[in-house]
Amino acid sequence: MSNQTPATGMAATPRPVLILFMGNNDDHAITSFQHLFPASVHIVTSDKFSDKYEEMLTEWSDSYGFRRGTVNSVDDLFEPTAVNSLIAASCGALREEFEHGGESEAKGPLLVGITGGTMHMAVSGTYFAQLAGGTVFYVLRPPEGQPVIPARDVVVFPELRSLRTALTTTIPDIHYLIGKGEGEVEELFEESEINGYWLDKLESEGLIEIEENKWQLTDLGHHSFSFITSSRMWNDVHTIFERMATDSEKPPDDNLMHG
Question: What domains appear along the chain, each with residue ranges and CATH number?
Fold first, then answer.
């Protein structure tokens, strides 16, 4: 394995932070390193593979020139609690990044890889990316008989902001929206702290629908707010992303992957 170096002219581009959801197969991780050139990498996996990735992450860090992050494992991957545990593990990775990643690395975009592991992992990774204002990516298998081409095989999904908007809504207003479900816009202004600006934001993110001065929580809105408030690690999530809120008004390019 040879060391990877950035392409000419890319030195000033903030390098991304990767959080990879990993199962037994690890080939896709190398493809993502080659294409995305990360500043640091964290892994979320099951306790079955934690020792394996503790060792491999160190090797990959040396070979591909990124800061070694953390390996965060869960022991309930096939239990009803798996999604909560996986997102809590992801929060642990992000917390470490805030504390030890350094100023320049922390400014890079967050990319969450959902290629490896179970469907629970893919769902959890997608939720977490939305919460964190990150971007989800997936590494495709190359066509049979063809070599891996990272620029072709790494697929980046559009950024989804709906859950971050849900998260940055105040707790009393979240409970108001969930409790009511629908109502008159005028009553919403009177009975909650939601103003016209935030109402427009909730609508633009698809969390509510407005028609003829009436509002209604959408399926996405109900699921987003319910997921956040029912999660056992709500306080952990809220604390972490409250710190991110001050950075949420960056120019659009700050949250996009360059490639």
Answer: 17-158 (3.40.50.10770), 163-247 (1.10.10.10)
